[in-house]
Amino acid sequence: MPSKIYRLGEYDTDYRIYYVGHKSDTVKIGRRYWEGYTRCVDDFEYLMNRRYTGENLTIFVDTSVKVNAPVEYLSRNGEMIHDSTINYHSFLFTIENISNTTIFLGRTFSVYFIHREAKNKKGEWVKIDKNLSEIGLCLTGAATINLKPGQIVISKIRRCCGNFLTDFRLVFGYDDNVVYSNVFKDSIDARVFDSNK
Asked: What are residue 154's DSSP bridge partners?
């Protein structure tokens, strides 16, 4: 399949969920995750568990697995259209609930509270995309994603493109309520740092 150069700011906030469930030797992630979520619940206690720390969540970006992330569009009749001419080189990443309680991850079929940071030439971490939670989406009727103890989410991070090789990390959460992924290498156009000042 052809691949298109990914430019930050073009499709930078959609970390689509491909799997929610328990770890196993083989996990099929072909299509975007649409099933197994909770639409309505009577017990909203899990909504109170929005404390994200390294004691209840881990995030791991696996750069050894090279995958593509297709762009998806909805047609006028609501059916999903897959355009194989628009595909982005990506890495897989997992979020695992290592606690003994269910954790609220947000609403929608994407990882809602996550963004990416990269080190600039001064060695400072700079936020280079936004959380979906910062966009101001209408989430009426959207799926609620709850991660039970021992479960994982599998998603993809679209790779950057440029001539500046640097350190990256994912940040899940908001304010000082965050969990960081492992640090991984990728290349980026250094001009992105100037546009994010």
From this structure: 19, 94
Q: How far is Cα 146 from Cα 75, in angstroms, rounded to an integer?
A: 29
Distance (Å, rounded) from C-alpha 168 to C-alpha 80?
Answer: 32
Cβ burial of 2 (10 Å; 0-12, 13-18, 19+) is exposed
Instruction: Please enumerate, as own/partner, the contacts of 74-77 that have beta carbons within 8 Å and a separation of 24 or more.
Output: none
pTM, 2 dp? 0.78
pLDDT of the chain along its 197 residues, tens only? 333 333 334 435 678 888 888 888 888 776 666 554 444 444 455 555 678 999 999 999 999 987 877 665 555 565 655 555 566 788 999 999 999 988 888 877 778 889 999 999 999 999 988 776 666 666 556 677 888 899 999 999 988 888 999 999 999 998 888 999 999 999 998 888 876 55
Q: Is 91 left (phi over 0), alpha (psi -120 to 50) or beta?
A: beta
